[in-house]
Automatic annotation (TrEMBL):
Signal peptide: none annotated. This is GPAT3 acyltransferase. The chain crosses the membrane at residues 90-107. The lineage of its organism: Eukaryota, Metazoa, Chordata, Craniata, Vertebrata. Coiled coil: none annotated. One of its GO terms (biological process) is phospholipid biosynthetic process. It is a multi-pass membrane protein. The gene is Gpat3_1. GO terms for molecular function: glycerol-3-phosphate O-acyltransferase activity. Residues 1-70 form the Phospholipid/glycerol acyltransferase domain.
Length: 113
């Protein structure tokens, strides 16, 4: 079974950002490795809009294949508003929902010019 390695970091640590960029660049350069999945936005804001992507993932020199995901809250809501519900309430709601439905759009590949 093939698995990918995780690259974890602390956003507030500047040295971690440089290390992550280096690890991603090395991963992209190694053609034997599987593609890496990055969530450059890093934040979900109530499923109504998209925040500006962080530029770091675009600076590593690889081809970017953007994917947009929008959740449909009719049967169950994947968005957790921590100001309204506790984590336990959210987990209960997700686990007892009829379904978590989403639309996925695969956008054209992008290369930094």
């Amino acid at each position: 079974m093939r698995t990918s390695q995780h690259v974890l970091f602390e956003r507030s640590e500047m040295k971690d950002r440089h290390l992550v960029r280096k690890k991603i660049r090395e991963h992209v350069a190694d053609k034997a490795k599987l593609p890496i999945l990055i969530f450059p936005e890093g934040t979900c804001i109530n499923n109504t809009s998209v925040m500006m992507f962080k530029k770091g993932s675009f600076e590593v020199g690889g081809t970017i294949h953007p994917v947009a995901i929008k959740y449909d809250p009719r049967f169950g809501d994947a968005f957790w508003n921590s100001t309204k519900h506790s984590m336990m309430t959210y987990a209960f709601n997700v686990l007892t929902s009829w379904a978590i439905v989403c639309n996925v759009w695969y956008l054209p590949p992008m290369v930094k010019e």
